[in-house]
Amino acid sequence: MIDERLVAKKPAQLAVAEAAAFPLVSLTAYELLFEKFNFIAQAGANEGKSILLVNGAGGVGSVASQLAKWAGLTVYATASPRNFDWLTQHGVDVPVDYHAGQPNSLEQFADNQFDAIAVFYSIESYLPRMVELAKPFGHIGTIVGTQKPIDIALLKNKALSFDWEFMFTKAREQYRMASQGQILSQITDLLAAGDLKSITTKTYQGLNAANLNAASELLAAGHTVGKITLTV
Asked: For residue 125, which phi and psi values (nearest 5 degrees)?
């Protein structure tokens, strides 16, 4: 049983598998951008502000980039150069090579450049550089648990906020549950208007060991673009 407050109608223009790929990643991206980073959830309302997405070609990143672009932000996102076309097709203004030492890597940017930074990858190794890149009173957020302690004291001198996002929190804690159904309804409207597009890149037909193993191997490789789905 799923509480009706947490769901919305399926977008008419998406196939079932495509629609199944959206709720987790779109809720995660929306809550981080508009409830934790406090950007305004309206078309073009955040012009003049910028955001950096680390691992921008993944499932959450591919929705976050589109939502941020719709909301008027200038969007920077990291990925492998082979995925730069995917980034630009999904709202990214400036693709960034995640490999160190490249002409368009994170090393090129000046300090105090971004109003907010979202890290959709293990943040431990990124945090010192993210603190340098964030503007004073800005935000750094992540959705990934840490394997070891991180030094939050690094954020102090720039008065930065550190934001966790976990889309299951509202259901687990019985907190503002209706907001998730409302967010998904807005996501449906944005898809219908063409402001968001599908992020499904691979669909396996049939629930069996071979398909589960193949999907798991793709995920384990750590270079997945968009979302993988499986139909039953």
From this structure: -75, -20
